[in-house]
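Researcher: Sequence recovery benchmark, item below. Answer with residues only.
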């Protein structure tokens, strides 16, 4: 939580997203005129007077570089109070730890594997329970709600199948049921969707993905409109200590300046790649919200500005491990595509969710979600699209 400093960017609300991404939370340094944000690495801050706390004391609690980032994230999301953490999962953990034993959370069917692991393998030990519901149908959301349900928790687009959760529908149920809804917006940063505009109470981001965007940091944020919840999360931030270092805050501050530009570029490339994949006989399914054939394309069109993002998932007809290995090796040998975890980087990354992000899900649950052994997720980077297509073309050819 930042106390707005005299550096605050005045009248933020009248500026567009691109302007806020550059200027919110930042002004040239008062002493030197430095335009890039100054990194304040000091752990300890000298106190001006005995018996009176200065604004900054110890960097775990509060740090000037982190405050700039907090202010920028609040401006970009369109309000709320932000708290930033050492990773997206640390942000999620702090959020869920505001619950009490006996509380229940209703989640959309497909959540990031780490979210599942957090709830199933850790928070369940403290009496916090959860269930999944199909959030595409109003009745099934209602069916999943229990008297002790404290939050509706959704991710959109979902990782890795890129289902779109209709935030207007979730908002409708949330309002009627008087249960706040929370969006893990890692796959829909605020340059494309602003969950607060749909009535979300809280937005969670893995900053490690689109927001920072350069494959060089881990970070997370919880941004909430609920001031009591914000206080609780800030308390947990200080208490658990999973803070984001000033250097990492700097990288996010710089990275997010190009968020909208990067989003547009990868959205364009991803659409081209998705259209190419759609034509391949060895591919059984292509998941991309920008395709007309995507089941929730019309919702995606309403919910997303500036394109549909850089992630395209697909299912290969082939499920044999040996052949899949040959596919991956060939893609790597003929293109700059990296085989690895994660997404939203300058580099195009081919991931295999069954052994990576969704390894924590039991195989039957994974397969019921359509994440079969032939399932791949491609996060396109900023390379030339022809070079990405060439690698895929060569890789897919070995499966013919
Ligand atoms: C949707 C989603 N939420 C949360 C996380 C966790 O973020 P982090 O890796 O920064 O801990 C991820 C990571 O991939 C993710 O995809």
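Model:
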């Amino acid at each position: 939580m930042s106390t707005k400093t005299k550096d605050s960017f005045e009248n933020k609300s009248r500026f567009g997203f691109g302007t806020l991404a550059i200027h919110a939370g930042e002004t040239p340094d008062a002493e030197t005129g430095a335009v890039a944000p100054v990194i304040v690495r000091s752990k300890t801050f000298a106190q001006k007077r005995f018996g009176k706390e200065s604004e900054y004391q110890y960097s775990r609690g509060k740090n000037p570089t982190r405050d700039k980032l907090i202010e920028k994230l609040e401006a970009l999301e369109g309000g709320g109070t932000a708290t930033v953490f050492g990773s997206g999962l640390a942000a999620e953990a702090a959020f869920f730890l505001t619950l009490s034993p006996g509380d229940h959370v209703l989640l959309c069917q497909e959540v990031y594997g780490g979210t599942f692991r957090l709830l199933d393998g850790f928070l369940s030990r403290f009496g916090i329970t959860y269930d999944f519901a199909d959030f595409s149908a109003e009745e099934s959301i209602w069916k999943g709600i229990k008297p002790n349900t404290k939050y509706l928790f959704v991710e959109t687009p979902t990782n890795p199948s890129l289902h779109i959760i209709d935030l207007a529908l979730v908002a409708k149920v949330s309002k009627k049921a008087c249960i706040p809804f929370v969006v893990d917006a890692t796959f829909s940063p605020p340059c494309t969707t602003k969950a607060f505009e749909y009535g979300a109470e809280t937005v969670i981001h893995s900053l490690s993905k689109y927001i920072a965007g350069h494959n060089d940091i881990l970070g997370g944020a919880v941004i909430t409109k609920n001031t009591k919840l914000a206080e609780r999360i800030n308390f947990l931030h200080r208490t658990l200590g999973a803070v984001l270092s000033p250097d990492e805050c700097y990288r996010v501050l710089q990275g997010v300046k190009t968020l909208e530009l990067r989003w547009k570029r990868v959205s364009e490339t991803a659409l081209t790649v998705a259209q190419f994949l759609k034509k391949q006989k060895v591919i059984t399914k292509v998941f991309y919200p920008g395709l007309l054939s995507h089941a929730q394309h019309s919702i995606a069109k309403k919910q997303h500005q500036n394109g549909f993002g850089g992630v395209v998932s697909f299912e290969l007809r082939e499920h044999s491990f040996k052949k899949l290995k040959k596919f991956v090796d060939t893609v790597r040998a003929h293109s700059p595509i990296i085989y690895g975890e994660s997404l939203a980087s300058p580099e195009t990354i081919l991931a295999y969710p069954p052994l990576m992000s969704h390894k924590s899900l039991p195989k039957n649950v994974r397969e019921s979600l359509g994440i079969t052994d032939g399932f791949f997720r491609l996060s396109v980077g900023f390379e030339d699209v022809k070079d990405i297509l060439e690698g895929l073309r060569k890789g897919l050819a070995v499966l013919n």
